[in-house]
Amino acid sequence: MNLHMAGFIPIGMPELLVILLVVLLLFGAAKIPQLMKGLGQGISEFKKGVKEGGEPEAEEKKKEEKPPEESKSK
Questions:
Q1: Gap between the Cα atoms of 48 and 22, Å rounded
Q2: Do 41 and 34 touch, CB atoms closer than 8 A?
Q3: pLDDT by residue (tens digit) across 7-63?
Q4: Burial, 28: exposed, middle or buried (Cβ in 10 Å; 0-12, 13-18, 19+)?
Q5: Average per-residue pLDDT for the chain
Q6: Alpha-carbon distance 67 to 65, whole Å?
Q7: Which tens digit of pLDDT belongs to each residue from 1-12?
Q8: pTM of the predicted structure, to 2 decimals
Q9: What's the confidence (pLDDT) of residue 40?
Q10: H-type helices in the chain, by residue range?
């Protein structure tokens, strides 16, 4: 499939430089490392969540299979 037909605009080096310049002007040079750190942590947490996503469901199913024991001290 051709990217032009899908609605995507090819981004070259000049376009990337303009985007970088706009980001630099909006956030400032001091704020960019903090933004990238937050983005990296967010991606890490997302990957961790996806990796561990199926495990809690399996534990819940095991709990549902076992009937709760009633206390005999009545």
A1: 32
A2: no
A3: 777 889 999 999 989 988 988 888 888 988 999 999 999 999 998 886 655 555 666
A4: exposed
A5: 78
A6: 6
A7: 565 666 777 889
A8: 0.46
A9: 94
A10: 13-27, 32-52, 55-65
Residue type at 53? G
Say how far apart CA 31 and CA 21 lie, in whole Å: 14
Would you tell me the crossing angle of helices 13-27 and 32-52 to the nearest 10 degrees?
110
Q: How far apart are CA 9 and CA 3, in angstroms?
A: 7
Ramachandran region, residue 28 (left: φ > 0; alpha: ψ -120 to 50; beta: rest): left
Quote the tokens at residue 3. 């990217």
Contact call for residues 23 and 32 (beta carbons, < 8 A): yes
